[in-house]
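[job 0417] fold request received: Phospho-N-acetylmuramoyl-pentapeptide-transferase
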Amino acid sequence: MLLELARWLYAMGWMPPLFGYITFRGILGALTALLLSLWLGPYAIARLKRLKGGQPIRTDGPQSHFSKAGTPTMGGSLILVTITLSTLLWADLRNRYVWVLLAVLVAFGLIGWLDDWIKIVRRDPNGLKSRYKYALQSLFGLAAAVFLFMSADTPAATTLYLPLLKDVAWPLGAGFIVVAYFWIVGFSNAVNLTDGLDGLAIMPTVLVASALGVFAYASGNAVFSEYLQIPAVPGAGEITIFCAAIAGAGLGFLWFNTYPAMVFMGDIGALALGAALGTIAVIVRQEAILVVMGGVFVIETLSVMIQVASFKLTGRRVFRMAPIHHHFELKGWPEPRVIVRFWIISVMLVLVGLATLKVR
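[job 0417] inference complete; emitting structure tokens
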């Protein structure tokens, strides 16, 4: 929106070409989302309190969580609003990837909103039934995957690449739809499972989004993509603004979500952000890198899968409680210790992912 105005002012000779640089608009996008979050946050929290949007607490969870009952949830709506506004202000709205990401963000946010609403109104910690939630996720995830496949304009856009193996490239054909679907839906659920402690999910999301923004910028630049030997995806550079908006909005939300949280993200934020990360990775052809950088999300998900499989097959639990962050809580780790240590692990994994840009 503002980019078009800046272009007109530049054409008239009234403004320098600063707004033509993706990096400059990315910085503005992050700052805009951050400041909007800090400005709107107190109002949003007060509004959620008036709506009695308190978080129901599982009775089988750690006892330390019982004191959190009644803390406003659905705070993810603040994240979605600020990301959307910032992206609309600073991104090139003629870019199809921008609209795909906004559509995924809003669609999965609506699923999360429905889930949170059921938890609040019916006071049911389980929320929307799993089969209905997964059906809606599948519908929107498949729609995004099909659109990306049908609109692909280069062979690289539907080819699978692996980090460290520069000569390995597997054309997926229609199999791209399957890969894209699983990454979008899979990471949507993975981030949601991770969102169980104050600030635990949002900081890794900020880190991963920031790193994916680097990949997006390089993939959208013909010179950088050739030099770094990563897939060249024309138009992907504009995704940098969206990634920056996620980072800014996430940090703004963390201001209120840090321990002890004044507001919880809820499924409205977790499902949407996870799906957005999966979609970004698919667009820039870095699915494997997302698994590495988003390792905290992957580990949380695997812990649930292992726990369920073990209990069903043997009647025994591998962990004291799943997802795994609750396991460490029940072992006696204070909540802030679990959170910060998971953040440190996330930083390490993101650095490993970024290092693959040069190790090819």
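[job 0417] notes: Residues 29-355 form one domain. The first helix runs from residue 2 to 11.
[job 0417] exit 0
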